[in-house]
Design brief:
- The complex is a heterodimer of chains A (307) and B (239).
- Chain A is α/β, with parallel strands linked by helices.
- In chain A, 33% of the residues lie in helices and 27% in strands.
- Chain A is built from ten helices and 14 strands.
- In chain A, strand 7, helix 5 and strand 8 form a beta-alpha-beta unit.
- In chain A, helix 3 packs across helix 4.
- Chain B has one domain.
- By secondary structure, chain B is an all-alpha fold.
- In chain B, 79% of the residues lie in helices and 0% in strands.
- The radius of gyration of chain B is 18 Å and the shape is globular.
- The chains are: A alpha/beta (307), B mainly alpha (239).
- Chain A: Pfam families: ABC_tran.
- Chain A: InterPro entries: AAA+_ATPase, ABC_transporter-like_ATP-bd, P-loop_NTPase.
- Chain A: Keywords: ATP-binding, Nucleotide-binding, Transport.
């Protein structure tokens, strides 16, 4: 049930302006602004407790912002008529009663949404839950509950999908299936906003990245920009590390020891370090350039490694 | 609205809770008839005989409360609000109507059991027999009390949002606060939902308040609390 969904000139699928959400004295989301482009898969990243789920709840209208606004297709979410055909949402937990079967859960949602009953069978097949559909949700594994939550989000074949930590609990096959599904939806003009605390895992799926930490925006751009923004380091192994460190410092670089006994050099490229060593008479046993991984970038932006 | 009601009705009948309440209601109805009509000695007055037919509206209050509060405990209220094509207040209203309809079914079941079991037993008792008018009034009063109690329970459940807390509060009020209040002012108790439901179901008789008056009192409480629940639902966050 895929169809071409986008047209030139569409407003941003989702636009968030100065969103703030406070619970008493605690600020969960702090002056957050971003847009989610139509036909794009946008990753919403941040460490645990960064405010991702709270922000998503405000974006879909489940939580009322303390300040700021969220728009879906240009309409303020506070005045938006909830419609499973426009917005499919999966926010953990899956929102199914443990004593109800998966099929009954979806049947009730299909009825509430005014969708034909056959959609229940279609989405159960899509997420691979046909055989478990008559079992009570309380007996489901975490991965099966995730699939049921995704089935509920997909029930209306929506233009926009908002998924909170959708890969949690999925096995590698499930993750690959989800990646393919989301990419196909985006290719057909659909829009996906998905949150995750695992940037490396989701990087293969997303086009754009919104990164938050402690409720505040720390990065908003394409995944390619983020990959290229990582500063590379030169890894050196030498018996004269102290001498080389002084030479590097004099040339404007910075050094630190890595876990394996090597020296990590920032601020100079591999050629500059090799020349410095040659001029200073430092014998290098090994030299290599290492580009920061997305995980390194993530930690760098969020301070995650220090927590 | 009909699609919302259909969805909410599917929810109310697809867990074992409805079965538990049906069994509980029937068991109570049988016990009540046996205790009143068999074990209470001679019943020679009409109000005493009517008591054997009385239902337990608090059971339906619990039905609505546990079900509606469970929507928040199990986070099923949020997905419903996200797909309902109407605002949250309307979705909650549909849920309350669904509990009223299923409450009517549960109430009808227990009433059939009560009447079917009690009438043959009461025919052996001395004094005037219950006329068809008496029986009709008791049945109607019980059904009205059941439906209004289910609505009130669902509205309270939406406000309290915790089944355990709701049940504890309800039981404390019914079994501790109301009896204490009745010691102070019996006519005051008649104006509470519990007192009015007791009169309406004929569990309580010989009071200053008529069945119709009790119906209006219970309806007024039900409407007021339902309105508050709908207004609050529109304003509060959903987990």
């Amino acid at each position: 049930m895929t169809s071409s969904r986008t047209s030139v000139g569409d407003p941003a699928a989702i636009r968030v302006e100065g969103l703030t959400k406070r619970y008493g004295r605690r600020t969960a989301v702090d002056d957050l602004s971003f847009t989610v482009g139509t036909g794009r898969v946008t990753g919403f990243f941040g460490p645990n407790g960064a405010g991702k789920t709270t922000a998503l709840k405000a974006v879909v209208g489940l939580a009322r912002p303390t300040a700021g606004r969220a728009f879906v297709r240009g309409t303020p979410v506070t005045t938006l008529r909830p419609d499973a055909r426009l917005l499919g949402v999966h926010i953990e937990p899956c929102g199914a009663h443990p004593g109800r079967t998966g099929r009954a859960h979806l049947r009730s949602l299909a009825a509430l949404a005014g969708l034909p009953r056959r959609r229940v069978g279609e989405v159960l097949e899509l997420v691979g839950l046909e055989e478990a559909a008559r079992r009570r949700v309380g007996k489901y594994s975490m991965g099966m509950r995730q699939r049921l939550g995704l089935a509920a989000a997909l029930l209306g074949d929506p233009e926009i999908l908002v998924l909170d930590e959708p890969v949690n609990g999925l096995d590698p096959q499930g993750i690959r299936w989800l990646r393919t599904l989301l990419r196909e939806r985006a290719a057909n003009g659909g829009t996906v906003l998905l949150s995750s605390h695992m940037l490396g895992e989701a990087a293969q799926t997303v086009d754009d990245v919104i990164m938050i930490d402690r409720g505040r925006l720390v990065h908003n751009g394409t995944i390619r920009d983020l990959e290229q923004s990582g500063e590379s380091v030169v890894v050196v192994r030498t018996a004269e590390a102290e001498r080389l460190s002084r030479l590097v410092a004099a040339a404007g670089g910075r050094t630190q020891r890595d876990d394996g006994g090597g020296l990590l050099i920032e601020g100079l490229d591999v050629t500059e370090v090799a020349r410095l060593a040659q001029r200073g008479g430092v014998l290098l046993e090994e030299i290599a350039q290492r580009t920061a991984s997305l995980e390194d970038v993530f930690f760098g932006l969020t301070g995650g490694a220090d927590r | 609205m009909s699609h919302l009601l259909r969805g909410e009705l599917i929810k109310t009948v697809t867990t074992r809770t409805v079965l538990g309440f049906a069994v509980g209601g029937v068991v109570f109805a049988v016990l009540n008839v046996l205790v009143i009509a068999v074990a209470s000695g001679t019943l020679d007055k009409v109000p005493e005989k009517e008591e054997a037919l009385a239902g337990l509206p608090i059971l339906l209050l619990l039905w609505g409360l546990v079900g509606a509060a469970g929507e928040y405990r199990h986070r099923t209220a949020a997905p419903a609000a996200l797909v309902g094509r109407r605002d949250r207040g309307v979705v909650l209203s549909a849920r309350i109507v669904a509990y009223a309809l299923t409450g009517l079914l549960l109430g009808t079941l227990t009433t059939i059991v009560s009447v079917g079991l009690a009438l043959p037993l009461l025919s052996d008792q001395p004094g005037p027999d219950l006329t068809s008018g008496d029986i009709g009034a008791v049945v109607a009063g019980n059904l009205v009390a059941f439906v209004l109690s289910a609505i009130l329970g669902a509205a309270l459940g939406a406000l309290i949002r915790s089944p355990v807390l709701g049940v504890v509060v309800l039981l404390i009020v019914n079994f501790a606060v109301v009896p204490l209040l009745s010691g102070v002012s019996e006519s005051g108790v008649n104006l509470t939902p519990f007192g009015a439901a007791g009169i309406l179901s004929r569990m309580t008789h010989n009071t200053t308040l008529s069945m119709v008056g009790a119906g209006w009192v219970l309806a007024a409480w039900t409407v007021a609390i339902t309105l508050v629940a709908v207004i609050v639902e529109r304003r509060r966050d959903l987990a």
